[in-house]
What we know:
heterodimer; A: alpha/beta; 6-stranded mixed β-sheet; 10 strands; globular; B: alpha+beta; Alpha-Beta Plaits; 2 domains; 4-stranded antiparallel β-sheet; 69% helix; elongated; binds adenosine-5'-triphosphate; binds magnesium ion
Amino acid sequence: xxxxxxxxxxxxxxxxxxxxxxxxxxxxxxxxxxxxxxxxxxxxxxxxxxxxxxxxxxxxxxxxxxxxxxxxxxxxxxxxxxxxxxxxxxxxxxxxxxxxxxxxxxxxxxxxxxxxxxxxxxxxxxxxxxxxxxxxxxxxxxxxxxxxxxxxxxxxxxxxxxxxxxxxxxxxxxxxxxxxxxxxxxxxxxxxxxxxxxxxxxxxxxxxxxxxxxxxxxxxxxxxxxxxxxxxxxxxx
Amino acid sequence: xxxxxxxxxxxxxxxxxxxxxxxxxxxxxxxxxxxxxxxxxxxxxxxxxxxxxxxxxxxxxxxxxxxxxxxxxxxxxxxxxxxxxxxxxxxxxxxxxxxxxxxxxxxxxxxxxxxxxxxxxxxxxxxxxxxxxxxxxxxxxxxxxxxxxxxxxxxxxxxxxxxxxxxxxxxxxxxxxxxxxxxxxxxxxxxxxxxxxxxxxxxxxxxxxxxxxxxxxxxxxxxxxxxxxxxxxxxxxxxxxxxxxxxxxxxxxxxxxxxxxxxxxxxxxxxxxxxxxxxxxxxxxxxxxxxxx
Lengths: 237, 293
Ligand SMILES: Nc1ncnc2c1ncn2[C@@H]1O[C@H](COP(=O)(O)OP(=O)(O)OP(=O)(O)O)[C@@H](O)[C@H]1O
Ligand SMILES: [Mg+2]
């Protein structure tokens, strides 16, 4: 689908201030190449979620440039924002599933939202559910599933429109350590199939366990960008 | 828009409407009231206008020539030059006499009458009934005209009625229109509130604003259309009842009511148009805030 050259994420000298005057991002430059797996870590209030909102186009930078899979938020038009979002799959700490729809319908819903037919859904959904290990739960409702299972539905939903990049904001925040590890394993597996992965997390143990690239944010700045572990690893910057 | 989506939008729109049955019912009711009042005032105005036209057609002012005026025919061009005069016809005593006889064939009295007791006269038609008083005065002022007969009071009464009806009508329609849009908008706002999570998810995965908006637009469309249909049927019934009442009443027998079958097309069209405008306008105003960034 996308050219590998355009399928990347780049922030250049980005600054961002909320309407109430909070300076959340104070000059961040960051490049994530296609196929990478990146952990975004840092203390509470450091600006991690704001970076994600910049990538999804929910907020705009006050200075600098944000590029996402071939779209630039500098000159993006109202009409292009939906197209940019189709290149992203987003996962939240609180799952955000539609309670009155089955697992299958939750996925069909987002496929239809971007124009897929019922026939395409019937082909794609079983494949994605199998990938996250929920093929037997297609007709369950979210409140009939455990937290870990619900988050895997959310991953399936993020995957189902075949995005270039998956962005997860503390996906394991509501899960116990064992489920968290399983979930992270799943994200690594999906990354190996070619999807770029950006994961915000607080969990030092998990980050250390996987030995991936770790970008540490503090007070709206990148204070460390290294492979291996939480701050302690090899320092690039 | 694909066929597949069309079915989906309609289905969502209908189920939205039923999810707030009472509010939808109220919204449709207000729309019906708005259209009924609008339609009733308009139909009254249309009928009053029709009567006014009849009046205009029949309303000739008669200008009687002075007894001893030598060449009455010479007045014709002077009268025709007066503003607002549409036509001037000379009627001699002899002709006037013949008309009386024709009009009242049973009255022996006229038959033997000497035409010389009548005056020569001009039948004058005016272009604009509203200015009949000025025209009458101008005709009166012409040398050789003895006096003028004009039924200005009747015309004046109708014109005032029509003007008042128009003002009241326009004001009421404007207010009710806004109220209807507001109520429909609030009803749909309830569904958008119920569905705010779904809307957020659709936006997150990259659904276009149009896709998100359509079900709500259909919901509004449907309410407006249902309101228009109910209002049309009620208006029809009401009109027939009033027409029946007028034609059987002694006092109003002379008023000729335009039959509904001559009016139903424009009534149906404008009800549907206004209803759909109210519904779709309301839904667009309700969904606006969910579609910003
Ligand atoms: N909608 C908002 N309006 C105003 N200020 C905000 C808003 N959202 C976040 N902030 C502020 O911006 C700063 C960065 O917040 P952000 O949510 O990006 O932090 P975070 O790193 O995700 O924190 P956490 O780990 O607790 O989720 C904080 O000071 C926060 O209070
Ligand atoms: Mg956060």
